[in-house]
Amino acid sequence: MSDNVVKFKGNGTGLIMLLDQNTPYPKLEAAIKARLAENAKSFPAGTVIKTSPNGFGQKAQAAMMAIFDEYSLKLEFSDEALVRNAPAARSEHRAHRDMPAGRDERVEEMLVINRTVRGGEEISSKSSVLICGNVNPGAQIIAGGSIDIRGTCRGVVHAGAFGDTEAFVIADNLMPVQIRIADLIARSPDNMEKRDKAERAFIKDGQIVIESIER
Amino acid sequence: MSQVIVVTSGKGGVGKTTTTANIGVGLAMRGKSVVLIDTDTGLRNLDLLLGLENRIMYDLVDVTEGRVPYKKALVRHKKFETLFLLPTSQVKDKSSINPAQLIVLCNELRKEYDYIIIDCPAGIEQGFQTAIAAADTALVVTMPEISAVRDADKIIGELGRADKDNIKLIVNRIRPQMVEKGDMLDMNDINDILSISCIGQVPDDEMVVTATNKGEPVIVSGSSLAGKAYTNIVGRICGEEIPFMEFPKEGFFARLKRAFGM
Fold this sequence. Notes:
The structure holds 2 protein chains of 2 kinds. In chain A, 20% of the residues lie in helices and 33% in strands. Chain A has 4 helices and 15 strands. In chain A, the strands form 3 sheets. In chain A, strands 5-7-9-11-14-15 form a 6-stranded mixed β-sheet, with no helix packed on it. In chain A, strands 6-8-10-12-13 form a 5-stranded mixed β-sheet, with no helix packed on it. Chain A has a 4-stranded mixed β-sheet with strand order 1-2-3-4. In chain A, strand 1 and strand 2 (15-19) form a beta hairpin. In chain A, helix 2 (25-39) packs parallel to helix 3 (58-70). In chain A, 28% of the residues are buried. Chain B is globular and about 60 Å long. In chain B, strands 3-4-2-5-1-6-7-8 form an 8-stranded mixed β-sheet, sandwiched between helices. Chain B is of the alpha/beta class.
């Protein structure tokens, strides 16, 4: 019976507990206990399980959390469990998690590439990317954070690929085929001149703008 | 110490085979012993450029499959005693030879010859992977044309992934007049993108076509511009410092002639 009342599911970003909306709380609690007794061993200690908060009072929430606590599991009440089938909403959540509220708290990691990235190569990273060399036409750089190129950029660059709209692209010579930041795309003008100054591309008022910088 | 050189480009038609033939003949003219290996199985051409088609008895596939010793398959050039061609099969395809076989063969050849030059097929598939396997040095041939440069870039990346770090560039078929007018990429544009050291700039020359059809590489006569450029490349391969030649500017009469459509 408990099989239909309580379900655990993976949604791509974590585990979710689905509860039958029509079952009254005391019965639910029993079902959860039964399910956990069966399955808790398959979850490593500390695993976070999310469930939708709808309809539960604070008391019920606390009681449920206590049950999970016994098995060293953590129960979180989150709306994410509701919107698991809407991919757009999910990716938004991911972006939030990648970028905690305070910018300083953010774990800054960086991928450093110490060579020229040639046509046909793709560099992909969740973190920021620093390239000491050129990015040639036909190459692609995809970064969760920002991209810094100490050389000429002629390929396709995508900063903030997981939704970070604060990400930017810097290059000594910024002349890419396309610049993508978060979900915005800008393409190069059809005849581009070479400029001698380093430039930075970032999002301003909902579009990608480029300004020259000193460095 | 003998050297194995692969001539490659990615794009077809930029002059890999022509370059291979000319460098081979050039080195032989300096008295070096040279073997040219054609690895463009199924689409072999190198024998034609050298005028040796009618002397082929066995081919590379016969050698790698152990049917004959390589000495039997080598074709000596009719004019240059120290130049040999190892032709490939025209009926088989690229899958008939694998990288390991070519490495074994080249190691055999190293004992007897100064230079082993491998003519690579176009593309980045199996034929390419086989051709580069044994090489110490790669010569990347390109043309001042955006698609050829793009493919050369890709090839340089592939060579890097195959741990070949001695890579040199040859820019073929330059038309000085077009470069001057800004209608063709110049050397700066190409160096900007490819950023590897260049050992040859060869002008586009009608003599190359004539020479190809005659089966005698353009370097032999030595009087043409392309022939001189190839002679310089051979010198640089032998470790000499030779400045790049200046291409003659279009003279007054030539311009006048062109203006009148003559």
